[in-house]
Structure formats: structure tokens, C-alpha cells
Amino acid sequence: MTGRTLLIGAGVFLVLFTAALWYFQTYAFYEDLPPEPTVLGQYPVQSWEGIDAATSPLKKRVCLTVTPEVAQQIADDTSELTGGEPLVAPSWFDCFDAETIARDLEAGKATLHMVATSVFDGVDEYLALYPDGRAYIWRELQPEFKNQ
Q1: Residues 6+ apart with CB under 8 A from 5
Q2: Pairwise CA distance, residues 104 & 120, whole Å
Q3: Helix or strand holding residue 69 (H, E)
Q4: How far is the C-alpha of 94 from the C-alpha of 16, rounded, in Å?
Q5: Cβ(49)–Cβ(95) under 8 Å?
Q6: What is the pLDDT, as a whole number, of residue 147?
Q7: Res 1: pLDDT
Q8: Alpha carbons 112 and 54: distance in angstroms, whole number
Q9: CA torsion through residues 85, 91, 95, 97, sign
Q10: CA angle, 116 as apex, 113 and 120 as ends, to 5°?
Q11: Which residues contact 139 (CB under 8 A, 6 or more apart)?
Q12: Which bin fits 58, alpha (ψ -120 to 50), beta or left (φ > 0)?
């Protein structure tokens, strides 16, 4: 075997491995979530689009809408939080833009609410709620687990 053959073989392996890694990180294992009739257990939802994966508790992303009246009711009934950091969704899941949601939370255009505490060990679920009824759900690590 010559050096050229070995180098070409290594290059082909690298390209195939990189393509497989990219596919498994961005597409594989994700599943569409079935529509939920309510959010936070009691508020009716108008539309729902969500993804999740069994490979990590942090892969859940949901885009939903409620009526502006329901959005106001959620804001009145739940306490507002600070500090949530939406995690980036796969590029093909168009409705969830983590950077825009984070900027809007920081600017006060949206409010942050807790959906569930300790959904999994060390993982909480959050809701970013806009006054017009748009809402986004994601999961993130609890503060004590973030820097480990």
C-alpha cells in the first residue's frame, strides 16, 4: 500500500465520518411531538409545533400560540422569572429562534415562566410568552448543573 492510497482512504473516511456526525447531531433521533391541547396544564393552545429526542432531555423545543387573553391570564397567574437562556434548535426547526427569544426576554418584549421543575434530574422546562400569544418552550439545566 502506498502513502497516496492511505491518504485517500483516510480522507474518504474523514468525509464520511463528518457527514454521519452532522446528520446524527441535526436530524437523527428527533421526533415531532403530538399537539397538546393545553399549556401549563390548563390554558388552551391554538397551535403547537414541537420536537424532542429521547437521546437528551435538553432537546425539546416547542412553538405554540394562545389567544392574547390567555397570554394575559398566564402572565397574571404565574410568576415571572429572569435569567432563562433558550437553547439553539436545529436549523430545520424554523419556528424556534433562540437568539431572538433571548433578546426579547432581555428587552422585556417577552416574559419568562416556569413550565415544570425537575422534569428530569437537574433539568427545568421554561416558557417564553409574548403579549400577542406567541410562546416558546425549551428545557435547560438547573443553575447548579450548568458549570459541571
Answers
A1: none
A2: 27
A3: helix 68-77
A4: 27
A5: yes
A6: 73
A7: 67
A8: 25
A9: positive
A10: 135
A11: 57, 58, 59, 60, 87, 119, 120, 123, 124, 125, 126
A12: alpha
**All three cell numbers of 141:** 439545566
**Grid cell for residue 108:** 422585556
- Whose cell is 409545533? That residue is 49
Sole residue written with cell 430545520: 92
Three cell numbers written together for 20: 454521519
* Residue whose C-alpha is closest to residue 100's, from 70, 138, 67, 53: 138
What average pLDDT values come out for the chain (148 residues) when binned by 10 residues? 89 96 88 92 94 92 96 92 90 95 96 91 94 96 80
Encoded amino acid at 9, one letter: G
Spell out a b/e string for 30-55, using b for 16 or more CB atoms within 10 Å of the CB, else e.
Answer: beeeeeeeebbeebebeebbbbbeee
Here the cell at position 61 is: 423545543
